[in-house]
Design brief:
Blueprint: H1 2-29, H2 33-38, H3 41-83
Length: about 100
């Protein structure tokens, strides 16, 4: 089961990485040529490399954490609603005193 999540996560992040890389490349190619006189090409390449490295290494871990957190919140909500009484006692809403059932001894 763990490998299935990892494999689908890898495919998703690969797709995201490819999309963002292509978007970044299109943006850089639309820069005015005067920018390339001021910025060394190595700096642009390093920036691309570091961005892609973050996408490849950080994004899968963050997505997995998001999935875990979503599952935890869903579980807590389900437990909360399952433990609530099915019907609330009738009243006008002005009585704030909590009435607990008497324990038999």
């Amino acid at each position: 089961m763990r490998d299935d999540i990892s494999d689908s996560s890898d495919v998703g992040t690969l797709r995201a990485t490819k999309y963002i890389h292509n978007h970044l490349l299109k943006s850089v190619l639309h820069w005015p040529t005067a920018v390339f006189d001021r910025i060394p090409s190595g700096r642009v390449m390093n920036r691309f490399g570091s961005d892609i490295d973050i996408l490849d290494n950080v994004l899968p871990k963050e997505l997995l954490e998001l999935l875990k957190d979503t599952a935890t919140v869903s579980e807590l909500l389900a437990q909360t609603f399952l433990c609530l009484p099915k019907e609330l006692p009738p009243g006008d809403g002005t009585n704030t005193e909590l009435k607990l059932p008497k324990m038999r001894t």
